[in-house]
User: Fold this.
Amino acid sequence: MAHVVFVTRPLPDPGIELLARMGFEVRANNEDRPLSREELIAGVQGSDALLCMLSDRIDAEVLDAVPSLRVISNYAVGFDNIDVASARQRGIEVTTTPGVLTDATADLAWALLLSATRNLGAGERMVRAGEWTGWAPTQLLGEPIRNQTLGIVGMGAIGQAVARRAQGFDMQIVYFNRNRVAPEIETALGAEFVPLDDLLKRSDFISLHAPLNEQSRHMFDSRAFSLMKPSSVLVNTGRGALIDEAELVNVLRDRRIAAAGLDVYEFEPTITEGLLSLDNVVLAPHLGSASTLARGDMVRLCCENIAEVLAGRPAVTPAPG
Ligand code: GLV
Ligand code: GLV
Assistant:
């Protein structure tokens, strides 16, 4: 009898057809909206595998409701939506999609860095509102990027790809990571490992790529913001809750930092009160991995992980830890 895979959301090409071609019985939510908790638990009943989104919270309650599950394949590199320890206690493997979305996410971090620094959001709003009266010597002046210091928080694959792009801007790179990366990577990137407080004090730009967990939640709080330069720009394509978003609103409003570019939000998809009315923040709708190449490769990797685990082999890309 074919193994059953439940998919919580329509997927881009190659889509759920790939699972059918691999010989699985596919059950899927065909509506392009997140399932409620009740719908998710009902839909996944009797499945061997769950292919889920970062917006699906998979905790002990869900796991207990579906004793048939053997693998949870998260359509994301982040996995803070899944209680991995509880899953593994129950013998359920959890997998993610590292690697395939590295370039797409690094590109988006740079898009936000450039947009926030050069006032692209405010400028676009002005043009669309019909309020632009023409070029002006004093209009929407931004800050330089070349020769400035970029601080990278979380020097995994995506942080490193962001650093590589910074070399084209002749930037100094400092980074903070739970573990220091290999010396040859530091040398190739020209990146200096520093304590977080030093990074906060020295950086003109800070880009966040650390995983969200209990240690990293609200890493950017009022204390951290107080160490940052008033001219600095903060970019977050990691997870919203790395930042205390209510405090970020205060800091941006009072110009204690210059600008921010956000792709992710603490209470996603709810946007914290005050953020929408600020002109010095660029807001993207969680587009980090949203390239056709990355999203297609994520489908392939999710399916491969499911196939390997259900065949009794090790996952290709198990969630770390
Ligand atoms: C996106 O945010 C991901 O974790 O893949
Ligand atoms: C966190 O900073 C990590 O990626 O180790």
